[in-house]
Amino acid sequence: MSSFDLAEAATTGTHLRQTVAGAGSTRAAAQRLADFFRTSLVDGQGHRACAQVSVFLGEFGAGGWEFGAGDDGPQTARVGGPGAEVGAADAEVGGPGAAYDSSSLLRLLRGSGLWPADDASAGEIDVVLLHPAGGRTDQSDEASTPSAPSTSEQAGRLLAFGGPVRAGQWFAVTLLVDEELPPDVTEFFRPVAHSTRLALLSAGASSAEDRLEAAGALTASMEMLVARRAAQLQSAVAELRSTSARLRRSEDELRRRETELREEAAVVELLQEVGGALAAELDLDTLVQHASDAATRLAGAAFGAFFYNVLGETGESYLLYVISGVDRSVFDKFPMPRNTQVFEPTFRGLGVVRSDDITTDPRYGHNVPHHGMPEGHLPVRSYLAVPVVSHGTVLGGFFFGHPEPGRFTERHERLVTGVASQTAVALQNAQTYRREREAAMELQRRLLPTLPKVDGIDTTSRYLPAARSRGAGGDWTDLIPLRDGEVALVIGDVMGKGVRAAAIMGQIRTACRAYAQLGLAPSEVLEQLSVIVDDIAPGCITTCAYGVLDRHRSRLRLAVAGHLPPVLRDREGSVSFLDEEIGPPLGVGRRAYPEQEVHLAPGARLLLYTDGLVERRSRPIDEGLHQLRKLLAGPVGEIEADCDSWLDALAGGQHDDDIAMLYLYRPEDAARRTLTVSRDYPPVSGAVPDARDLVSRTLRAWGLAHLANDLMLVTDEIVANAVRHARTPLRVELRRSADRVVLEVTDSSTHQPRLIVSRPEEFGHRGIFLVDKIATRWGTRMIDGGKVVWAEVSTA
């Protein structure tokens, strides 16, 4: 009932006429109408909507209104008398007494003007909505008097409609429902009222004129309802259109605001990203490119550039630039713009230049030879330039262009100015870092040696500063040729970065070379270095691995002070870490360091390295050592290529610490193979001629007879000295390599031969001058239980 609409009003009229077809009398038609309303009208849940339906029919005669009441003939009843209701269908819902009696309903109808007091043949069909406050059939007339009818603007539960059927005859229908009905329901029931009248006329003895007039009234009512609903629909459509337009405007506004908020969020995120990146970046080239890319995005420019000043090694200033938004090659053929009238104010730090159309600027186009943009230059109308200034010094400038005019706003200017301020601080940090790094690396380059060529071995070294650090560190390598054909291998690492670490490293390296030249054993060298470190840099952790390679005996003596162990690959390809004996780092005072001895035959390879090669923040050191072992156990070849490939595999440009490497290979080719002959002699005078004979025969067998006389003289002096001072058997060893011959005499005496000028009356100390004159190099090496005196003669 509450959702009764135009379509239901039309279909209800059709059903009403079908319901009364064949009724035979108006009274029978009224009863059918009452039953129809009772059963056909439902609520939203499909239940019967009407608690009571009453249909009244009356004719106005000489005695007033007469109501038909029974099948046995007409009866006369006054308004409100018993039996006044011709057709009724009482509700079962609501319990006893839920319905109104006929008298109460007629009083309501009369009070509402829906039932005339006298003949009203000229009356019209009407529909009213009433809201009775009480009045049950068991109440007295006074107590049951219903309230006045409700107005059309009030909701009610009693719907009534009626009017003249024909001249002198009247009908009325009341529908009592269990829900509040909206006021506009009367509008839809007006055609139903006309359809009820037409149905009553079609069931009784009515004239064609009456039926035609009733059909016309029904049509007029439907047309009026349709017109009214159409007007309401048009109004609703107009309102809907207006609402839709407002919604669209609201949606557009929301989308615009959402876009603005997204753009603002993107700007904030970009500014945060730029600030963090610039604060953390120390590489100058990366920094300026990042700043230029970010500023170009913030400005909305078609392309941007950042020109900046740097200082060369000799202190001269020169200009560099980066490009954003387009390929750098676009600007390769153009000169630097510093001296033009448009660009000069920015490089002088005079302030921001923003132009909606730079081609209309009075400073534009005055500089020869182009008088404007050079041929081939990207078109520029909108122009924005922001200087980058720190403490009154112009470090560079941002320049942005766009081919359309008016693209850069005050907001763009503020954003780029903010980036320029951050860039100025970052540039200062990066330039300070670069100066410190270059100073430390230059110091380290000056301190690190160039590896000498050593016969019988191939060597190479690498030094890489950390990918992201404040300068070089204290890593170093060294290769020190010693007397008697031995060579010292050194690698070390001083804790820290920068000039201090490099300076400490230089002092330690110098001391190490000095101790090596004294012929000290590896353990003794580290013992002395520990004292030095404790003196020059107390508390500074320093690690070192020091080894002495005897190429003739293929023997490596090694001592390690807190350093990662060297890696040895033998000629068969087996890989091992030399970690049997490792002592504490240097700088813990004087203490003995353990020493180990390994065989290093031709075909073997040895790698000494610092921890930067195998240790990274994202990789445990054990994993790095395992990977290093796999690399050395794999295919190997030319030593330079080996070093490069291993660095790529283990560091890949992402190393957190400095890397130093010393790589040694003993070739197996016959031309470089060492030949050795040795004999043991008792410490007696007869050992001297026997040793001379051994040297002479060996040199002739080697095709070096031209060296025999010289080397026999050297043998005389050294063996004679050993016989004079030794108490145990002595050993004579002769070794030949590609370009030299080495004589070694080992004895148990600690007395070392020295160049001492004798007085004329003295007999001794003259033979050693003969050795010094003949030998290319000579020296003494102390060993456990004695010494080795050696002399080297070139085969040339």
Automatic annotation (TrEMBL):
Coiled coil: 230-264
Listed InterPro entries: Bact_Sigma-Reg (IPR052016), GAF (IPR003018), GAF-like_dom_sf (IPR029016), HATPase_C_sf (IPR036890), HATPase_dom (IPR003594), PPM-type-like_dom_sf (IPR036457), PPM-type_phosphatase-like_dom (IPR001932)
E.C. numbers: 3.1.3.16
First-tier enzyme category under EC: hydrolase
Database matches in Pfam families: GAF_2 (PF13185), HATPase_c_2 (PF13581), SpoIIE (PF07228)
Ranges of residues in domain PPM-type phosphatase: 457-666
GO molecular function: ATP binding; kinase activity; metal ion binding; protein serine/threonine phosphatase activity
SUPFAM superfamilies in the record: ATPase domain of HSP90 chaperone/DNA topoisomerase II/histidine kinase (SSF55874), GAF domain-like (SSF55781), PP2C-like (SSF81606)
Entry keywords, A to Z: ATP-binding, Coiled coil, Hydrolase, Kinase, Magnesium, Manganese, Metal-binding, Nucleotide-binding, Phosphoprotein, Protein phosphatase, Transferase
Biased composition (Polar residues): 142-153
Ranges for region Disordered: 72-91, 134-153
Keyword Coiled coil applies: yes
Catalyzed reactions: O-phospho-L-seryl-[protein] + H2O = L-seryl-[protein] + phosphate
Residue ranges of every copy of the GAF domain listed in the record: 283-437
Function comment: Primarily acts as an independent SigF regulator that is sensitive to the osmosensory signal, mediating the cross talk of PknD with the SigF regulon. Possesses both phosphatase and kinase activities. The kinase domain functions as a classic anti-sigma factor-like kinase to phosphorylate the anti-anti-sigma factor domain at the canonical regulatory site, and the phosphatase domain antagonizes this activity.
Name the UniProt record assigns to this protein: protein-serine/threonine phosphatase
